[in-house]
Amino acid sequence: MHIDRDDEINLGGTSGKSELSIDGYVDGLVFDCSAEKVFTSDHEGYFLRVNKAFCDFMGCKAEQLVGRNVRAYMSNKDVLLLPEMISGLWTSGRAIFDVKVLVSDHSEKYAEVSCRILQDGSILGLVHDITERKRQEDALSLAYEELNQILNTAIDGLRVVDKGFNILNCNEPFAHLVRMEKKDIIGKKCFQVLYGPACHTLECPLRRVFLYQQPIDGEVGKFRLDGSSVACILRSVPLRSRDGRVIGMVQNFKDISNIKRYENELLEYQERLRSLVSQLTIAEEEQRREIATHLHDDTCQSMALSIMQLRRVMSRIEDEKLVLQMKNVVDLLEKTMQGARSLTFDISPPVLYQFGLVEAARRLFRKIQVDIGINAEFAADESTLDLPQQHQIMLYHMLRELLYNVAKYASANSVKASIQKEAENTILEVCDDGVGFDPESALKPKDNKGFGLFSIRERLKAVGGEMQIFSGEGKGTRVKIVLGSAIR
Fold first, then answer.
1. Which residue of 140, 198, 254, 312 is surrounded by the most CB atoms within 10 Å?
2. Structure pTM?
C-alpha cells in the first residue's frame, strides 16, 4: 500500500527540498544524531546507510543492515506489493507505505515509511513505529467483527448507541421490533426510533449508564414511530473504549408485548372471577335466607300449630296410654322444631343482617361455648364494622366452618378468634390449643374430611385472598385468612 503526498521530509529540524542530499550534512552528523529512524537505499532496495534510531528499531547493528535488501525484513505479503510501491515512488518522487517489519528477535512490528527520491537517485526513508496503533486498530476491528457476529446471531433486538444518542448499528430483530428498515435506523437518534417516558429525563438509560458506569436492567414501555406501543425488558450495557472510557452503550430489547397482553387478559379474567365469586356469595346467601325464611315461616309454624292441636286433643283423651303416646309425638315434634329453628340460624342468622358480622360472631361463640363447653373468646377491631356486606357474609361462614372443625376434630380446651383491618386487607385469625394436624394433608380432601378447609382456600383464591395454616401434631392450630379489598 502507498499514499502519495506533497509535504516535505524534515530531518532534525531541517526542511528538505527536492535537491536534498545527505552528503550536504557535515560528516552526516544530523543524519546519525536524528531521533527519527532514517535510512537510505539504492533504487533496488539495498540499504546504503542507517542511523542509530533505525538500528534500535530493527534490533540490529548498522553493519548487519547495510548492504542487505529491504525485502529480507518485509512480510511475504508486503514483498509481493513492493514493485507497486517502488513504481509509485518513482512516478511521484515520494510516497508513504504501511508495512509489516520482521525484526531481529523474530517479532513483528508495523511501520509507516515515508520515502522520497534524492538528487543522486538514492532513496531517503523515514520510519515511524505504528505497532501499537496497528494493534489497537486490529483489536478494534476484531471487536467490531465480534459485535457484528453477536448482532447478527442474537434473537433479541440489539442496537449500539454512542454518547450523542446516535444509533451506530442494530440487528434485524431490532428493525423488526420497531417496524423499520435497518438502513433507515442507523444514524438516527435513539429516541427518534423508539420513544418512552424516560427519554430526555434523568431516567434515560444512556444518562444512567454514563452516571453509574454499570449495566442497567428494567421493564420499559416504548412507542414506535407509527404510535403503536411495545413492552420490552431492556438491558443497557456500557460500551467502553480500549482505555476503559464509556463511549456509548449496547442495548438488548426483549419483546414481551405478548406476555403483557396475556397478563392483562389474565388479570381481566381474575377480576371477572372475583366478581362472579362475589355474586355467587350473595346469591348463595340469598338462597340461604330464602330457605331459612321458609323453614321459619312455614315448617316451624306448621309444627307449632300441630303441637298446639295435639295438646288440645290430648286434653280430651282419658286413655292414659294413648295420652302418653301422643305426648311422645309432641316431644318429638318440639325437638324437630327446635332443630329446624337452630338450622335456620345456622344457615342464615338474622342477626348477621340486623347487627353485622361482629355481633353475629359473638353470638356464634357464645353458642359454641354453651353447646360444647369449650372456652371461646372473640375480639374484633371497630374498623371491621364498616366492611361491605359480601365481606361480612363470606367471613362469617368461614369463621363458622373453622369453629365447627375445632369442635369436631381438635379436642381443644379453648379457641380464640379475632377480626381486624390491616391497610386494605381484613385479617381473620382462629387459634386453638388442640391436637393439631398436618396442614398439607388436611388440604387434600379424602374420606369425606378436609372439604371445609379446601373450600375456604379455593374460594379465597378466586377473590385474591389467601389462607395460611400453622399447625403440627400436639402444637395446636392457627389459621390466618387474608381478604383483600379487591373483592366486590
1. 198
2. 0.43
